[in-house]
Amino acid sequence: MGDADATLAPRKKTVSAIGDRVFHGVTATSALIVLALIGGIAAALVVGAWPALTKFGPAFVTSMDWNPVTDEYGAAVAIFGTLASSALAMVIAVPVSFGIALFVTELAPVWMRQPISTAVELLAAIPSIIYGMWGLFVFAPFLSTYVQPWLSSALGDWPVVGYLFSGPPIGIGIFTAGMVLAIMIIPFITAVMRDTFEVVPGVLKESSYALGATTWEVARSVILPYTKTGVIGGIMLGLGRALGETMAVTFVIGNAHSIPGGLFYPGNSIAATLANEFTEATGEIYTSALIALGLVLFVITLIVLILARLLLLRLSAQEGQ
Amino acid sequence: MTLFQKRKAINTFNMAMCVATTVFGLFWLVWLLWTLISHGIGYIDWEVFTEITPAPGNDGGLSNAIVGSLIVTGIGTLIGAPIGIFAGTYLAEYGRNSKLAALVRFFNDVLLSAPSIIIGLFVYEVIVVTMGHFSALAGGIALSLIMIPLNVRITENMMRLVSDQMREAAAALGIPRWKVITRIIYRAALSGIITGVILGIARIAGETAPLLFTALNNNFFSTDVLGPIANLPIMIFQFALSPYEDWHHLAWVGAFLITFTILALNVLVRLVLRPSK
């Protein structure tokens, strides 16, 4: 009996020690895979883009050529389209998200808050390709029939602004892409804003209400200053999403390799160029130029997302979590 | 107008704008869903589930695309979910406050929002080029890379909700750490972890961009994971951009099926599995 115990006890200990080591190893490896992924993506893109980068040099980013026949490629048109459509999306999505977040946290009756939050979150669950199809078959015709002619005639004669709203009202182009992107990123920005608004201490809000502040004044002078970093982080997160959005933009941006003369002109984005041309690209330089485009997109979104996360980290440090 | 009236007017106007923006946001959801229902539901019949995708002008269905989507999503889940859950476990348990965990957490959040088309490019470079051809396996791996960050995040959050007293109580009984985690913490956080997996499936089921350069498409019925495979998102992409009316109808049916499956999964986890706050 005593002997059996003496032999059993140490063995049990080793089994559990081995179990711990194995399980620790498995989970740590999985965690390392996440890190390796970011590095791996960067490395694979650089390797793939190398032939194009060495051939075109830094001029790749500023060149407006995109000619598979002469094998001359530049990223400027795609970068411009990506930035322009995302900028338009931000102009629309930021105020709307702010309004929704404020409504959900401050105005709406309690029973309404969860259903509205859920409904907005469902917008984010709908796949990008569905937005694209809807954008192409339903939204673009609607814009070209009702919205674009009206915008052109109302604002077309204004200086600067008129230039933006010029172009053929065909429903396909930077304007429609920006609108669809706006709808797609509203849920992401709203979710972050709502979460940060919710952590504002009630005492702060109540104190200013007690001084006679209106709801808007509380929002502007108490909630916004308190949640500044979080709000900016959320906006950057939305921007990161908009920059890399592929399928929806591919359907509605028009795929024209030229710098658009106004918002209504068709253009192209990095992601849309990749989606349209990558599988059909022939020749080493063509493929490599497309991967180089992907590398540019990766670098831009990486910077934006890292800034967003740093801001959000600072916010949670401020909360003392 | 007195100052008070002015402040009140500004307040009323801005609050009205808040309501308006909320209506604006929800309006798109209604419009999108209505479009899918009105365009898609009329063309759903048995053939959709029994026939393969047709040549233009012929009758056909989506059976190959539906089965292909299930296979690719299945591969993505089988690879992505375990890695995501284990990595999340590391962040919540062994790593917790370590520098490595902070780094992983940070880049995981970055990866969560990284453009999915970049993931597709990466898998193309690493797997499709190495294998020499497009395949369902490559598509599944691409989808798993999208699923991993989501599962890491949700698993960590859910495991951290389990109180430390439970860990301490178990440790006081002399139970080794790995048993504490697998038998106690996993059990306590189970509904949360399952939520993460289901949300991950819902997320990757409709992803198109990562499949473009990996699984490609296939107009015939195939269950070969090493060859190109038909799948709903790419089918929608090709059929919607084709000039044929009957292909458009099939694309709408596919869009309807995929969207309502995803929304059903989302609503399901919210109603059934979400732990009440």
Automatic annotation (TrEMBL), chain A:
<dbReference type="InterPro" id="IPR011864">
    <property type="entry name" value="Phosphate_PstC"/>
</dbReference>
<keyword id="KW-0592">Phosphate transport</keyword>
<keyword id="KW-0997">Cell inner membrane</keyword>
<keyword id="KW-0812">Transmembrane</keyword>
<keyword id="KW-0813">Transport</keyword>
<dbReference type="InterPro" id="IPR035906">
    <property type="entry name" value="MetI-like_sf"/>
</dbReference>
<feature type="transmembrane region" description="Helical">
    <location>
        <begin position="160"/>
        <end position="186"/>
    </location>
</feature>
<keyword id="KW-0472">Membrane</keyword>
<dbReference type="GO" id="GO:0006817">
    <property type="term" value="P:phosphate ion transport"/>
</dbReference>
<protein>
    <recommendedName>
        <fullName>Phosphate transport system permease protein</fullName>
    </recommendedName>
</protein>
<dbReference type="InterPro" id="IPR000515">
    <property type="entry name" value="MetI-like"/>
</dbReference>
<feature type="domain" description="ABC transmembrane type-1">
    <location>
        <begin position="79"/>
        <end position="308"/>
    </location>
</feature>
<feature type="transmembrane region" description="Helical">
    <location>
        <begin position="73"/>
        <end position="104"/>
    </location>
</feature>
<dbReference type="GO" id="GO:0005315">
    <property type="term" value="F:phosphate transmembrane transporter activity"/>
</dbReference>
<keyword id="KW-1133">Transmembrane helix</keyword>
<comment type="similarity">
    <text>Belongs to the binding-protein-dependent transport system permease family. CysTW subfamily.</text>
</comment>
<comment type="function">
    <text>Part of the binding-protein-dependent transport system for phosphate; probably responsible for the translocation of the substrate across the membrane.</text>
</comment>
<dbReference type="GO" id="GO:0005886">
    <property type="term" value="C:plasma membrane"/>
</dbReference>
<dbReference type="Pfam" id="PF00528">
    <property type="entry name" value="BPD_transp_1"/>
</dbReference>
<feature type="transmembrane region" description="Helical">
    <location>
        <begin position="285"/>
        <end position="312"/>
    </location>
</feature>
<feature type="transmembrane region" description="Helical">
    <location>
        <begin position="116"/>
        <end position="140"/>
    </location>
</feature>
<dbReference type="InterPro" id="IPR051124">
    <property type="entry name" value="Phosphate_Transport_Permease"/>
</dbReference>
From TrEMBL, chain B:
<feature type="transmembrane region" description="Helical">
    <location>
        <begin position="250"/>
        <end position="273"/>
    </location>
</feature>
<feature type="domain" description="ABC transmembrane type-1">
    <location>
        <begin position="66"/>
        <end position="269"/>
    </location>
</feature>
<dbReference type="InterPro" id="IPR051408">
    <property type="entry name" value="Phosphate_transprt_permease"/>
</dbReference>
<feature type="transmembrane region" description="Helical">
    <location>
        <begin position="103"/>
        <end position="124"/>
    </location>
</feature>
<feature type="transmembrane region" description="Helical">
    <location>
        <begin position="12"/>
        <end position="34"/>
    </location>
</feature>
<dbReference type="InterPro" id="IPR000515">
    <property type="entry name" value="MetI-like"/>
</dbReference>
<keyword id="KW-1133">Transmembrane helix</keyword>
<protein>
    <recommendedName>
        <fullName>Phosphate transport system permease protein PstA</fullName>
    </recommendedName>
</protein>
<keyword id="KW-1003">Cell membrane</keyword>
<dbReference type="GO" id="GO:0035435">
    <property type="term" value="P:phosphate ion transmembrane transport"/>
</dbReference>
<feature type="transmembrane region" description="Helical">
    <location>
        <begin position="184"/>
        <end position="205"/>
    </location>
</feature>
<keyword id="KW-0812">Transmembrane</keyword>
<dbReference type="Pfam" id="PF00528">
    <property type="entry name" value="BPD_transp_1"/>
</dbReference>
<comment type="similarity">
    <text>Belongs to the binding-protein-dependent transport system permease family. CysTW subfamily.</text>
</comment>
<keyword id="KW-0813">Transport</keyword>
<keyword id="KW-0592">Phosphate transport</keyword>
<dbReference type="GO" id="GO:0005315">
    <property type="term" value="F:phosphate transmembrane transporter activity"/>
</dbReference>
<feature type="transmembrane region" description="Helical">
    <location>
        <begin position="130"/>
        <end position="150"/>
    </location>
</feature>
<dbReference type="InterPro" id="IPR035906">
    <property type="entry name" value="MetI-like_sf"/>
</dbReference>
<keyword id="KW-0472">Membrane</keyword>
<dbReference type="GO" id="GO:0005886">
    <property type="term" value="C:plasma membrane"/>
</dbReference>
<feature type="transmembrane region" description="Helical">
    <location>
        <begin position="66"/>
        <end position="91"/>
    </location>
</feature>
